[in-house]
Amino acid sequence: MAQILVVDDEPAIRQLLTDVLELEGHEVRVAADGLAAVSAFEALRPDCVVLDIMMPGLDGYGVLRRIRCHDGEPVPVIMLTAAADRESAARAWVDGADYYVAKPFVPDDVLDLLYRLLHEGPVAGEV
Asked: Which residues does the record list as 4-aspartylphosphate (modified residue) (predicted)?
């Protein structure tokens, strides 16, 4: 299966996503803030990133821009946010997000998006 980087400052969200993804056979790494996410991304080069937007320090948009600056095949990114609005979604698309998911989310929806990204390729959308 795939190696997934989960980035969220909320421990409960990190644990929920880790549990759900590992049950599906994925290898999961986690980061609790933006700077740790950038370091983890550079060290791991995961198959996909599930990335919260609102975090202390470097937010998800900053992390996404740094991810998109790397050479090679773009890594799919699913953005998560508790502040789902048109402006936030538009900014995520401009910065290169593949999907934008509002919190609270259904874990199976994230699994479905992940499956599509890993098997069918990116198609921008929102849940």
From this structure: 52
